[in-house]
Amino acid sequence: MENEIFKALADPSRRTLLDLLNASDGRTLNDLCAPLQMSRFGVMKHLNILEEAGLITTRKVGREKLHYLNAVPIRQIYDRWVSKYAEPWAIELTSLKNELERGTNMDNKPRHVNRIAIKATPDQVWQAITDPAKTSKFWFNCSIRSDWEEGAPFELWDQQGEKKAEGVILTLNPPHQLVMSWRLLSFPDAAGESPSRITWEIASHNEFPGVTLVTAVHDEFEQAAHTAKILENGLPIVLSGMKTFLETGSTLAGN
């Protein structure tokens, strides 16, 4: 998979497309064609290569197909090739920040979309997300607590007994979909904001048996800008940590 990522990044036009999505995420093909001096077919070809490498994801909203930057593979490249050799300040060079306030004519479209392929079953992924003994292995050492019923509250607690986040289970469809409201408590700027929403989508890969695609969508954060910035960087780490834990039994360093 790393070879596909490096191959995709080698082309300057594809890097330009990633830059465009970094500046303004959730864009249509027409939006992405305008700044590039190439045919619509050429842009589609580059987008397909980026999607096959996992560097972007797509979602249908109404009649439109929207394209999103997927930070998870870039985070994995960082974990393997950069963090071993660079000083901590280098993380600022690899953080991909979405512009939170931008004009759009589409209401309620997802904003931050991260996707990862994990060699595990959907049931194993579901258990990893909902079992406190497992969440502590990849969710910044925090354990999740809930009765796991629609309308029930949930809480995220660290090992020092501090509640870090809370919310409500909005949709529960094991092992395929979990929707939860989300409020961060451990960051002063985020603690007073309105709840946002995280949607977990879990599906078996169509082409690779034993592989599950996990998509985490964070949206409804128009009144939670600080939360959005924190989760924009945090959710790719959570997904990478989940993959490492389920596939190897180990944890990411520092998680």
TrEMBL record:
It comes from the Bacteria. Keywords: DNA-binding. SMART domains: HTH_ARSR. Residues 1-89 form the HTH arsR-type domain. It holds the Pfam family AHSA1. The keyword DNA-binding applies. PANTHER family: TRANSCRIPTIONAL REGULATORY PROTEIN. This is HTH arsR-type domain-containing protein. It comes from Paenibacillus allorhizosphaerae.
